[in-house]
Amino acid sequence: MNIKKEQSKSGESEKVIILKDLYKTYHSSEIEVHALNGINLNFERGEFTAIVGPSGSGKTTLLNLIGGLDSPDKGNIIINDQSIINLKEKDITEFRKRNIGFIFQSYNLLPVLTARENTELVMILQDYTESECKNRTEELLKEVGLEDRMNDRPSKLSGGQQQRVAVARALASKPQFILADEPTANLDSKSTEGLLSIMEKLNKEENITFIFSTHDQRVVKKARRIIKIEDGKVISDEN
Amino acid sequence: MTGTIAGTFISALMTGMYNQKVHDSIYTECGHLQIVSKSYLSDEDINSTFSAKETESILKKYQNPDKKAPIQAFSEQTIILSMAQTARGNAGINLTGIIPEEEKKVSDLYTKIIPGTGNYFSSETTLPEVVIGDKLAEILRIKNYRITEKNLSEMLKNGLNKNIATKLNSLKDIRYTTKKELEKAIKSVTSQKEQEKTISLIRKYSTYYEHRAKITFSFTNTAGKLSFLSCHVGGIFKTSNTFFDQSEVFIRQQDIIKETGLTSDKIHKIKILLNKNLSPDNIKNIKPIEQEIQSSLPGLKVLDIRNTSPDAYTYKLMSLPSTFIIMFIIYLVISFGIANTMTMAVMERIKEFGMLRSIGMSKKEIRYMIMAESIILIAIGALIGIFISLIIIIITSHTGINIFGSSSLESFGMSSLIYPDITSGLFIIIVILIGIVSIVTSIFPINKVLKIKLTNANKGVLS
Ligand SMILES: Nc1ncnc2c1ncn2[C@@H]1O[C@H](COP(=O)(O)OP(=O)(O)O)[C@@H](O)[C@H]1O
Ligand SMILES: [Mg+2]
Fold first, then answer.
1. Which of B351, B360, B455 sits opposite A93 (nearest CB)?
2. Lowest mean pLDDT, pick from A52-66, A86-100, B187-201
3. Which of A51, A97, A154, B383 could form a disulfide with A109 if both were Cys (CB 3.0 to 4.6 A apart)?
4. Residue of chain A whose alpha carbon sits nearest to that of B455
5. The pTM is what?
6. Same-domain pairing of B399 and B348
């Protein structure tokens, strides 16, 4: 295992995610697609950051790499002073479980479970006690405004409500980071607004780092930091 | 579930078939035990006899007086190798002299007389009366076919097409002495398509047996001289064993001994039916009594089903392993089907598994999850399946079931009516097989799911 320790320099704000010179190339049917072309980025604790760019610019690829769902061809990803790129399957799974919450574009809830059970799922995987699960779940679902829909299955919920369950699920195990790939792509503008204000609120209250991709201008406006990428390269990074 | 029903039922059917075969050969043909002279074993000669009186007095000790006695009944037989002859055919047969009242106690053959052909030794005949089998009647051309006004109307009632019936009019009242002749005639007036279903129907209803047919038997008597005996057929039986129907002819003992030079005390065989309390159909249970009788009859040889009906016995021996093999094949085929369905079901939910892995479920946990799911699913299906097939088996084990049509199995000496049966051994095998199937079949979808790249799984892409 290749674990590099990065000294965090005191005085500077804490860099919890460091991306160094990331490259990722897909080889599909004879053409090579350079999804990421040398990405260098740092993220600090408590950020609320949007990654924007046209479709095909590499947003999803970037988030997948940060979340350890995929690995880069070149470069390094250091999270909490630890490189994750050479971790074994088992350790990377454990890493995801402990540190990262995912919100998917198409919600990806389990259809047979209720909103409450879907939210509890991660906590059960992490061996929380029953009462801890119950309290946290109820608290979160209340936060996302679903206290009266807790026992409904996803099929009974609207897209916006389902995505709010997904947010609650992502937050349930108190991860350090939440990665959301176009979380509002399937939502109408009202649900989008609702979801974003919930995300903002949780970001402030729990000091959780939010990194989300989008190409929706209304969403971009809410972000405190906007990273623009095109053709797998960062073209601007503004606070 | 359907798989379980099929598997369970087919194996029960096979067990039923084997049991039937053994049952028939005991209760119709051979009895549980037979006694012959030692010389008869090596040479079935007319002179290889033993004393009926002496032997039977010994056997009676095992029979009287209480109901628990091991021997239920016995019947003596005089067996003469003969040539049976009619004006139109001949065949080598065993002409067996019996005392009908005694024989009835050890053989249910009297219940197998084809209706309309007479009966079991109570027909009025001017010559000595014989009872022969259906197959022999066919060979000797006693069994004939004739389409008449009467049986034509019966055929119409039983589904014969009117057009075909009109075509058959030209064949009316002609006597066909063989199946072939009849079929040739039918084929000459009907089309290929019309024949398919109707031939067996026409054959069935146009069959008739020559009344009181005369058969002449020829055999060598005790002195080695060729003798003849003419008889009338008093009844024709049909058992599940075509070979038996072809080769066994029964006659009253008193009618045959006159011609053979034997006496009523000189017999060739005694058939013994044992008491049901012993569960004597299972060869294991009769060994002790067999040995006991053998030791009290030192000059004679006691035979059991292993000798008297070796083919039935081999079936019995074969039944468990071969059922197992067939079940195994059935379940193997079913497994592929289930694995396929499971894989598809799991693939449809690829996003779920992608999500679960993303939020930190390990491959091992996913593996157990899918396995548990498929085991539960298959177990539920299997339980329902077993339940349904048990009901079917219980019902059909009383009524019997005719699966293969009438004659195909009978030519193998098996009854066409099968009484399915399931033993506890078989049942355990089925449960074990189902268990194996459910684990094995979950391996395919598991491997497939875990091979898919996580980034694709989350999008629902299957690669
Ligand atoms: N699994 C894959 N195989 C081949 N090409 C891919 C794959 N995933 C993404 N790509 C390509 O990589 C580039 C970046 O994709 P992606 O990260 O999904 O962009 P975005 O999320 O910004 O739309 C695109 O050109 C896309 O076609
Ligand atoms: Mg994308």
1. B360
2. B187-201
3. A154
4. A69
5. 0.60
6. yes
* Residue B241 main-chain phi, psi, to 5 deg: -115, 105
Most A-contacting residue of B348, B358, B461, B463 (CB-CB within 10 A), to test interface: B358
Q: Are residues B255 and B175 in the same domain?
A: no
| Domain housing B245 | 33-141+211-303
Q: Is the CB of A232 under 6 A from ligand 1?
A: no
**Within a domain: residue B383?**
yes
B222 & B294 share domain: yes
List the domains of chain A with CATH numbers. 48-68+88-238 (3.40.50.300)
In order of B369, B422, B436, the CA distances from B378 in angstroms are 14, 21, 11
The CA distance from A9 to A18, in Å, is 13
Taking the centre of ligand 2 as the mean of its atom positions, its distance from the CA of residue B463, in whole angstroms, is 17
Domain count, chain B: 3
Question: In this structure, which residue's CA is closest to atom 27 in ligand 1?
Answer: A56
Token code pair at residue B245: 């129907």
- Do B149 and B137 lie in one domain? The reply is no
Please tell me whether residues B180 and B240 are part of one structural domain: no
B318 and B387 both lie in a single domain: yes
- For A3, residues 6+ apart whose C-beta sits below 8 A from its C-beta are A82, A83
Tell me the pLDDT band of A8, cut-offs 50, 70 and 90: very low
Q: Cβ B460–A69 below 8 Å, yes or no?
A: no
Residue B13 lies in a domain: no
CB contact under 8 A, B359 and A122: yes
Cα B38 to ligand 2 centre (Å): 93
Contact present, A232 and A33 (Cβ < 8 Å): no
Q: Tell me, what's the ipTM?
A: 0.84
Evaluate if residue A10 carries a pLDDT over 50.
no
The Å distance, Cα A169 to ligand 1 centre, comes to 26
